[in-house]
Q: What sequence folds into this?
């Protein structure tokens, strides 16, 4: 990662989309950036993504040097200009130019040898969004690839003010004071010399954010796919993982809770890839759930993405799935199966599925599935139900509808259940109401409290 230590700010990049680097002493910025890139970038042919590349100041330079360069920018005006410039060229054409968000790149994992991230880290003013952009850049980079990220220094306005008479204007002084205090640069004056809305980094902060983005594997992105579907491209798969056809709006940046609430296939496919085949086999075998016909890492690997969201060769019975929910409800320990009422064996002897803390986290998310997610047809049930919908797609027939969970969410004596309705389609519609009826019956019989 290279750090742009300072940046001079007289121009509004929206007003000067193409020519900014040609004027004043921006040629110095350009030369310095190019020098740092050339110092590390391996010789062509290589794939480079210029994320937030505007009209292509660096993209065309790289394309002319023989790199397969893909330009991505959120501003259609910039992308149109880049496309027009590319098609007018004899050589040094861009491999592609498209409108895209730095937080959800339309490229698969490990697709690029290098990523340029020269604009997004100052245009994105929220830390969470900057982390998302960094995570996405790291995701699309092949192992050992190079990320060239630039940020604007916290002290940029101060330096700029000191070189000119800007501090004569008290408004400018106030802008600088805010920059130094929070890094949040705002210019309400309309004077382009005072730059645009941006975030100015403390130098150490950028290195910290890059580290954080690399370690954080709990977030994955769900984006818009061709053909009106949503999902994401997953490493090693020729076709993207697609969410349910009813999902028309991409889920964006998804963490575990949100993945469960909205039932995002793309999230769980990427999570399974991240934790690996062995971890999936280990967890499933605690419940005797087969995830591949041959239960080996080698056999599971090509199916891992689909198994992550319950497809592929994963095979489960309602009883086994009810045990998973029961385990989450009982603080992470695996509840033994008893076929008739008998004295409970000591919980300490039970094997553990997840830690009490993780069980509580999963339970909270399953409650949110019912209050605000795919299981919300049970939102009005008099007993607080926690659950998870499932739609098990099968070739040549309607999907099996699933719903598993437990109730009451905050109870002292609870039931866990799993419902399958074969060939009934979406689990939230067909199976969840039956689970609601089971909970009602348990409540009337006094089995829960
Ligand atoms: Zn999704």
A:
């Amino acid at each position: 990662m290279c750090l742009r230590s300072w940046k001079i700010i007289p121009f509004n990049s929206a007003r000067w989309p193409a020519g900014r680097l040609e004027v004043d002493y921006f040629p110095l910025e350009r030369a310095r950036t190019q020098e740092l890139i050339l110092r590390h970038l391996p010789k062509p042919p290589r794939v480079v993504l210029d994320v937030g590349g505007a009209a292509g100041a660096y993209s065309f330079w790289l394309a002319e040097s023989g790199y397969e360069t893909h330009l991505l920018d959120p501003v259609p005006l910039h992308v149109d200009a880049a496309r027009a410039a590319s098609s007018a060229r004899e050589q040094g054409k861009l491999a592609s130019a498209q409108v895209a968000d730095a937080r959800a790149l339309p490229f698969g994992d490990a697709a690029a040898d290098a990523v340029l991230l020269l604009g997004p880290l100052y245009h994105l003013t929220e830390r969470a969004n900057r982390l998302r952009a960094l995570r996405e850049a790291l995701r699309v980079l092949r192992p050992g690839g190079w990320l060239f990220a630039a940020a604007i220094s916290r002290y940029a306005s101060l330096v700029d003010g000191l070189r000119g008479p800007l501090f004569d204007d008290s408004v400018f002084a106030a802008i600088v004071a805010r920059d130094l205090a929070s890094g949040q640069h705002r210019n309400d004056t309309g004077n382009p010399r005072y730059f645009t809305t941006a975030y100015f980094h403390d130098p150490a902060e950028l290195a910290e954010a890059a580290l954080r983005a690399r370690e954080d594997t709990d977030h994955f992105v769900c984006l818009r796919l061709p053909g009106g579907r949503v999902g994401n491209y997953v490493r090693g798969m020729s076709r993207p993982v697609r969410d349910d056809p009813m999902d028309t709006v991409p889920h964006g940046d998804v963490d575990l809770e949100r993945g469960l609430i909205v039932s995002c296939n793309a999230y769980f496919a990427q999570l399974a890839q991240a934790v690996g085949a062995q971890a999936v086999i280990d967890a499933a075998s605690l419940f005797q759930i087969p995830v591949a016909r041959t239960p080996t890492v080698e056999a599971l690997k090509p199916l891992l993405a689909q198994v992550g969201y319950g497809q592929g060769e994963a095979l489960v019975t309602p009883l086994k799935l009810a045990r998973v929910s029961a385990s989450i409800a009982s603080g992470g320990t695996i509840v033994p199966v008893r076929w008739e009422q008998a004295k409970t064996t000591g919980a300490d002897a039970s094997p553990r599925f997840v830690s009490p803390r993780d069980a509580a986290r999963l339970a909270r998310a399953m409650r949110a599935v019912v209050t605000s997610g795919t299981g919300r047809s049970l939102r009005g049930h008099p007993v607080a139900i926690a659950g998870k919908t499932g739609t098990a797609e099968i070739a040549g027939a309607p999907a099996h509808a699933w719903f598993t969970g437990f109730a009451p969410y905050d109870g002292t004596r609870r039931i866990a259940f799993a419902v399958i309705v074969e060939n009934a389609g979406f689990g939230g519609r067909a199976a969840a109401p039956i689970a609601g009826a089971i909970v009602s019956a348990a409540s009337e019989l006094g089995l829960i409290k």
